Amino acid sequence: MKETGVVRRLDELGRVVIPKEIRKRLKINNGDMVDIYTSDDHIILEKYHPLNQDIIPIKAMLEALAQEYSFHLILFDDTRVIYSTLKEIASEEPVCGEFIQKIPAYLDKELSSKMNLELTDSYKFDKDIYIQRIIVNYESYGYIMVVDDIIGKKHKEALAIIDYYFQHILEEN
Question: What's phi and psi for 88, nearest 5 deg?
Fold first, then answer.
């Protein structure tokens, strides 16, 4: 754990203000939810992400689809990789800011490996990709990306399965 050197007093209701610099660094905005948990004698706040709550069945589903269809899947949000079936991309690895800025132009399009796209600082795509937004109850939860030699019908079928899963599983939470 990093020390910030910031000390704050609890008010009479037990509230504490998270300094703006820390919120900015962690990309926590007004209205965002945070997980609160304890470890030994520490209170830990973590930006809440609904996909983290159900990550074990999500990983199992993505692994099964990737194996069945023989391609790779990457689940990510605006800041980090949540899960990847590509072993070269680690969970929790930060997503390049430039990539995130261009996401609106990349959505629902077959993108060529010749575009030299970098999702993370350590990985440049050498295959074609297709990115789709994950939306549940009108709220964006992140993105799912298919990585393969050539994008086709089977990829979009798999994404439809993933979308169905998210709509019905995450909607319940």
Answer: -75, -10
